[in-house]
Design a protein that fits this description.
four-stranded antiparallel beta sheet; Jelly Rolls; 2 domains; 248 residues; 48% helix; alpha+beta; Arc Repressor Mutant, subunit A; 12 strands; 10 helices
């Protein structure tokens, strides 16, 4: 049996971490207009082109964000949302038709905190400090977009894969016998979508990495054998790497 009191206390503590500009009293008010929603693995949270009901914040689990191609069936995962990350701001605050411009899907069993569009707008009007925290989030999104556009246009597949593996290793990896073990919550298909390549191209790149003894693979597990060489192949700054890790 779920202890409702403990659940509300945990939700308030979580919201206080996400919105550090708000006072305890403001967090209490924000919690009252929030709704906790659970999603099963693979369940769609928001469909691209559908009505944007409000803002979501990941409380637990992992969510993929992406877009469909013009044909309507091929999709590309743009980024992941981990705990504390937000989806739906653009549809709420741009002052246009409330339509989701991307899809959101739970990659694993996930819990999200939801704020209905009218409620979050009313709260932001009464408590403008909320906009400071949203601005911080959106600024990071701009930096991430700039980096991705530059990376996709100028870098090789092997470089981008090395960068992704380093970021995943820093965030999800576990050290074992001098190696970094990644038991990934994502499929090869999702990895390919993130890199903007086909699964076949990804598998060939992983094969090259295995042949150079950088990694070993087994189903969804990837073991990084030669971290230093892989890191040199990624050749990025700690600042951009930290931004990437926040979106995985």
């Amino acid at each position: 049996m779920v202890d409702e009191g403990s659940d509300l206390k945990a939700r308030k503590a979580f919201l206080a971490q996400v919105f550090p500009s708000l006072s305890p009293g403001e967090i209490e008010k924000l919690q009252r207009v929030s709704l906790q929603i659970h999603y099963d693995e693979g369940e769609l949270i928001a469909q691209e082109g559908s009505y944007a009901a409000g803002v979501y914040i990941v409380q637990s689990g992992l969510v993929s964000i992406g877009k469909y191609a013009s044909e309507g069936w091929e999709k590309r995962v743009l980024r992941f949302l981990a705990v504390g990350e937000i989806f739906g701001l653009e549809a709420v605050f741009l002052g246009r038709e409330a339509i989701n411009v991307q899809f959101a899907k739970a990659l694993v069993e996930s819990t999200l905190i939801f704020f209905e569009r009218a409620n979050i707008l009313a709260f932001a009007k009464e408590h403008p400090n909320l906009c400071s925290d949203f601005s911080r989030w959106l600024s990071r999104e701009v930096i991430m977009l700039e980096f991705k556009l530059t990376r996709d246009a100028t870098e090789s597949i092997d470089h981008n894969l090395a960068l992704l593996l380093i970021a995943l290793g820093n965030k999800y990896g576990q050290k074992a016998s001098g190696k970094i073990v990644l038991n990934l919550p994502i499929s090869r298909q999702t990895m390919a979508e993130m890199l903007g390549i086909s699964v076949e191209t990804l598998m060939r790149a992983l094969k090259r990495f295995r042949e150079h003894e950088l990694i070993t693979t087994a189903k969804r597990q990837i073991v990084i054998v030669d971290w230093e060489t892989l890191e040199r192949g990624a050749h990025t700054t700690p600042f951009y790497l930290s931004i990437i890790e926040e979106t995985l």
